[in-house]
Amino acid sequence: MLRYSSLISVAILSFVIATTICPFGIKFLKRKNIKSKHKSRFRDVHDQVIPRIGGIGIVFGFWGTIGTLLFVRTQLVSIHFLDSDKLWILPWLFGLSMSAFLLGLIDDFKNIRARYKLIVQIVIACITVAVFFQPDVIVLPFFQKVHFGKLGYIVAVVWIVGIMNAMNLIDGLDSLAAGVAAIALLGIGTIAWLEQDMIIFTMTISLIFSLLGFLVYNLHPARVFMGDSGSLFLGFILAVLPFIQISGSTHRYNILPILLLGVPIVDTSFTIIRRSIKGIPLFSADKNHIHHRLIEKGLSHRQSVRRLHLAASGYLLIFLLSSLRVIDIKVGLLAFMALSWLLIFYAGYDERINPFFGIQDRNMKRQNRSFMIQLSNNIDLFYQDAENINQILFTLKIWAQQFQCISFALGFTDSQMHWDENCGNSDESGEEVEFEENGLYLKLKFRKNSLDMDSDLKFELLNKVKEETFKHMNRVKDTVTKH
Question: What is the DSSP string of 384-427?
Fold first, then answer.
């Protein structure tokens, strides 16, 4: 039976390691002048650049504690968390989860293309399924035991990759992803406790308190983000942990992840549907996730996080009532669907009323997107023949109109020379973006919400256009006369 003193030791050790590692990581980055690839992006809700190194604290808190338990156990100290019949899972789980962590860590500091990240995730998922899963028979709501055969392995791989990316997608507000993960782990730990599955229970307690240690620095206003390293690691653990059993079978917790991870599942599923309808590439980042929509509605940062944590707690309640057979599993699934619809409705998506909103002009949007990319990537070819400021302004105005820009201002900070151009209704409300560099400034006003879709792509293209504009403005500076 579990000893409470040992449980407290696990919780304290995990918390202390996480709270110690996070600030150490921040200081190390500053001392070595190592910067994340992520600067301020259109979809970010912070104005300043914040270190994305918090995942290290979570991972060290978790695996540092589990490793300490193993070490203490070998020294014959009486800690009965770990059943020797279950220890075989730890080396595999460590290696695979660390692979997900390292993939995210590299992506935090190097720009890995989405397709390459996906390939690595699939490889990790395939190895995981081969080691832990026997998904030829899967228990699902309404269907009970479904015989998938070899198709079950594909379903399991899709599940793991999907949850890894789902946790990554909801990591958009301070403490949101960590809170959702901790709430889900409460459900996993509760069932593990009731079934005396001590190794699963120990890992859930350790990870929960590692997350609490990370949250010391991640509560709004955050001093550190978990980054892709933390979100991919958490997604992997949450996708795999409920399915691990002594024999490697997956029958015990088939229903658990479906009901327990409602917030990331709903957000990711609706994102896929929304982008497919509007003709937006699935891997294109935007500012239309549920947490972005809540802020758009006027909720504060903290209020948005609390609403989503409340929703996650609702999914936890549905899971516990279904798992403990207080309610029938079919009722649990219906409750899950009802809560998911309320979440989407509360977020204010247009698709909740008209499921095919935006599908009519999908082809036109794809063509405009392609033209926008080509024009931005080749704007230097247009600029290189410019002999004066008027030709630069002409090219910039064509680009700005394609980019749904209402107006822009371009000039030199050290003189009175500046130029204002209108590309639409100047009285129209919108979002302003400003750049200033090497004695030049560029102010742009975009139509409201025009930067929400393809936000990371537009941020990248806009920076390219800014750099080329400033370079050629300096080139023709001597020919400039006030416009």
Answer: TT--SHHHHHHHHHHHHHHTTEEEEEEEETTSS-EEEEESS-TT
Residue 237 has pLDDT above 50, yes or no: yes
Contact 370, 413 (CB under 8 A): no
CA atoms within 13 A on the CB side of 84: 2
As a residue count, the chain comes to: 483
Rounding to the nearest 10 degrees, give the CA dihedral for residues 295, 369, 38, 285. Answer: 50
Domain residue ranges in the chain: 4-265, 362-479
Cross-strand bridge partners of residue 480: none
The pLDDT assigned to 108 comes to 87
- The rounded distance, in Å, linking the Cα atoms of 238 and 90 is 15
Q: What is the pLDDT of residue 220?
A: 87
In the chain, the amino acid numbered 11 is A
DSSP three-state, residue 409 = strand
What does the alpha-carbon distance between residue 397 and residue 84 come to, in Å, rounded to a whole number? Answer: 69
Nearest 5°: phi and psi at 42? Answer: -60, -30
Query: Which residue type does 3 have?
Result: R
Q: What DSSP element (H or E) covers 362?
A: helix 362-377
Q: What are the Cα distances from residue 341, in Å, to 3, 102, 233, 267, 329?
A: 42, 35, 28, 11, 18
CA atoms within 13 A on the CB side of 305: 21
**430-437, strands of its sheet edge to edge:** 418-422, 405-412, 440-447, 430-437
Identity of the amino acid at 418: H
Alpha-carbon span 198 to 90, nearest angstrom: 13
CA separation for the pair 64, 463 (Å, rounded): 41
Considering only CA atoms, which of 198, 196, 190 is closest in space to residue 66?
A: 198
Distances (CA, A) of 201 to 176, 235, 427: 23, 18, 59
77: pLDDT strictly greater than 50: no
Q: Is 52 helix (H, G, I), strand (E, B) or coil?
A: coil
Tokens of 151: 């198709």
256 vs 297: CA distance, rounded Å: 32
280-314: pLDDT as tens digits: 777 776 777 898 889 888 899 999 999 999 999 99
Residue 118's SS3 state is helix
Q: What tens digit of pLDDT does each residue of 25-57 get?
A: 777 766 655 555 555 555 555 556 678 889 999
φ, ψ for residue 405 (rounded to 5)? Answer: -95, 130
Q: Are 267 and 170 in contact (CB under 8 A)?
A: yes
> What SS3 string covers 127-171?
HHHHHHCCCCEEEECCCEEEECCCHHHHHHHHHHHHHHHHHHHCC
- Cα distances from 252 to residues 96, 135, 197, 241, 479, in angstroms, run 22, 12, 11, 11, 75
Start-to-end CA span in the chain (Å): 82
